[in-house]
Amino acid sequence: MEQDISEGKFIEHGEYKGNLYGTSAESVETIVNSGRVCVLSPHWQALKMLRTPRLRPYIVFIKPPPLETLIETRTAANARSTFDKDCSRAFTEEEFADIIRSSNRINFLYGYMFDEEIVNQDLATALTQLLKMAWRVQSEPLWVPAAWVQ
User: Which are the contacts of 103, defined by CB distance < 8 A and separation ≥ 6?
Assistant: First the structure.
């Protein structure tokens, strides 16, 4: 895998908990070239690598609701944190605040790249919005930078 990374065969890659991961450029291109929608959930730092004419991404930012709503809805759903390597547990208030801070930072740094935003206040509603966007991307003409079509 390290050789494939050095040869540019991945559109994004990284290491998590000692394991290498990545998204193969060939697999994404195959899906896109077949006329289907490829849904990725990349690390936010990979956005600049993904936003290319080769991939023609439609970037949807799924952000958390306001802090109070995030705490209320995730606590009610018994959402579990996996920040600790060896156990899952309830999120702390500080972790919820970190989620909001991270979301704001991502939006500040990369918001100009987002084609749409979804507030994940309610999972069913957010999923419905995402599916409608995927259908639109697949079935309607979309704006892309002029440099991508030359």
Answer: 63, 64
